């Protein structure tokens, strides 16, 4: 089904696209809204201010607010919100259905861009005249919903990611490309080349990395690199760190820090596990820092003259980029944003361009580096590197079979030399939270933990 998602405070909601009629910005002075969120625009259009409906009163007065109109009982009604997204396709199989006994208003949840989205029974919700507290939307205590999408919303902190949902940074890229004092580098995550195809009429899974390199060069980028090299670097550094911790016996398990949402989850919800986080930067930040340092020296310029643009499917990378302790990436744009950039950059179609190779050096990434975008891929790369460090030989893919698969939580014991390493892999933050609780309760003595916010990985 096609849905449009939007945010109200910290809640991300979804409405089926066929019910959506219009999305406009309206001056707050044109609205009259009561405490329950009911009111009108220009004394004629009926609206429900969802900011007040859900108790976000501090968000209720701005210079202007976004209003979307949906069909209800054959008529249009307005919803006052904060931000809305473009139309996106969600497969029915991806929806986690709920029943009326679970919630009188929520019919299901789905994970979009690594964030939980509530799908409401809009007729029932809008017919309810009283203000609502988010905790009252469910009849069961939220603490008992471990591993569910609802628990992901309440028990994980992805708010820095949420606030960037509607921020389009293509204008920042265009400004950097137009600035002759800047040397602009694109670092393309492996998943982007494989996911961009449908936007240009190609089949899902078609690898358009070569055409993408050509398109980015035509748009004005000075260099275009395969960011999979950063995954290889991160896997190697984390493998050294794991070996050191195995020797010292301290701060185990090692929790891989590649996923920005997972790092934020640990920092805000499980601060006692911060020492367990890998000290390594994310692959994007690590690679970006290398690019800045290398080209500043190579060109005889200041690192501030080198602009690194990360092209990624990850919204949380936008939040990560703003952290004061991380400076490897200057601009982070999503796959959808780079599509818009390419469509405005010239009169060509990406699929019609000749393939071009990524720039060198850093143009080669191992299969492990590419697979690091997939849940379990990072663990596999780290374990194989640790195996070489401890035995001088590759332990092989077969030894890591237990961590492959699609289950939300996977556990395995991997034999490396004379050591049996206990490993946990989880994708989506709800199931990841379950693993973190096991670590805190010391119910399972893991050595290595990988958690990715998005279902299946960075795809």
Automatic annotation (TrEMBL):
CheW-like domain span: 1-131
InterPro entries (alphabetical): CheW-like_dom_sf, CheW-lke_dom, Cytosolic_Fe-S_CAF, Fe_hydrogenase, Fe_hydrogenase_lsu_C
Signal sequence, renumbered to the chain: none
A biological-process GO annotation: signal transduction
Protein name: CheW-like domain-containing protein
Native source species: marine metagenome
